[in-house]
């Protein structure tokens, strides 16, 4: 089983949970009204699709329901699926590593598998002959640095880390310097906190 197949398999649990929540909303379906749409929007937000994206999907669905006069449950489901697909589908899922160094910034809430994914990506890149540096910039989650250190060691990647609680941007700054010094091909940054683009560019 290839890397992306394993990743897809690992996402099955998340997908099934999301499907179950959506189906539960439709179980009590009576009519298309604002309460129904608000409930769908809440499910999207709580499933980490994001506030702005969730609002956009529901707004598009609302407009489509009015325009096409959709009332049937299955037609609403189909329209929701299509509106989500328009926004969430991407035609190109490949990593573009045509710069040296290339930077992969991995973000997301705790528990979604960022650290594990970073370890697998680093291992795959190392097998492809890439020299990899990993920045342990998730400095606020307990044991995050130690966990990433194990994965980096398995992949044969260098890791840049600091003590718990420091500014994540300072870790990224150091990692950029180390990446340049080692003439590495790829820098992978693990963080759960917002790092401003300007701070990274300053590095």
Describe this structure in words.
The protein is α/β, with parallel strands linked by helices. It folds into two domains: 11-88, SRP54, nucleotide-binding domain (Four Helix Bundle (Hemerythrin (Met), subunit A), Up-down Bundle), CATH 1.20.120.140; 102-202, 3-Layer(aba) Sandwich (Rossmann fold), CATH 3.40.50.300. Helix content is 58%, strand content 9%. It has a four-stranded parallel β-sheet, with helices on both faces. The chain starts with a helix and ends with a helix.
Alpha-beta content class:
alpha/beta
Helix content: 55-70%
The total number of structural domains is: 2
User: Major sheet: order of its strands?
Assistant: 1-4-2-3
The CATH class of the largest domain is Alpha Beta
Low-confidence stretches: 194-203
Count the beta strands. 4
Distance between the termini: 38 Å
Number of helices: 9
Q: Please, what is the CATH homologous superfamily of the largest domain?
A: P-loop containing nucleotide triphosphate hydrolases
Task: Kindly report the CATH topology of the largest domain.
Answer: Rossmann fold
Q: What integer value in Å does the Rg equal? A: 21 Å
Strand content: 5-15%
Shape: elongated
How would you sum up the major sheet?
4 strands, parallel
What is the mean predicted local confidence, pLDDT? 81
């Amino acid at each position: 089983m290839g890397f992306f197949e394993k990743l897809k398999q690992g996402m099955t649990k998340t997908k099934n949970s999301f499907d179950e929540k959506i189906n539960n909303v439709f179980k009590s379906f009576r009519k298309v009204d604002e309460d129904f749409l608000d409930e769908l929007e809440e499910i999207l937000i709580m499933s980490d699709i994001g506030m702005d994206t969730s609002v956009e999907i529901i707004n598009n669905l609302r407009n489509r329901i009015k325009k096409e006069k959709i009332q049937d449950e299955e037609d609403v489901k189909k329209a929701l699926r299509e509106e989500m697909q328009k926004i969430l589908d991407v035609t190109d899922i490949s990593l573009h590593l045509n710069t040296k160094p290339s930077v992969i910034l991995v973000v997301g809430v705790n528990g979604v598998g960022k650290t594990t994914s970073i370890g697998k990506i680093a291992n795959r890149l190392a097998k492809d002959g890439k020299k990899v540096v990993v920045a342990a910039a998730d400095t606020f989650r307990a044991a995050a640095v130690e966990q990433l250190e194990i994965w980096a060691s398995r992949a044969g990647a260098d890791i840049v880390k600091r003590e718990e609680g420091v500014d994540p941007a300072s870790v990224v700054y150091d990692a950029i310097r180390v990446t340049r010094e080692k003439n590495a091909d790829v820098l992978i940054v693990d963080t759960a906190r917002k790092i401003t683009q300007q701070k990274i560019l300053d590095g």
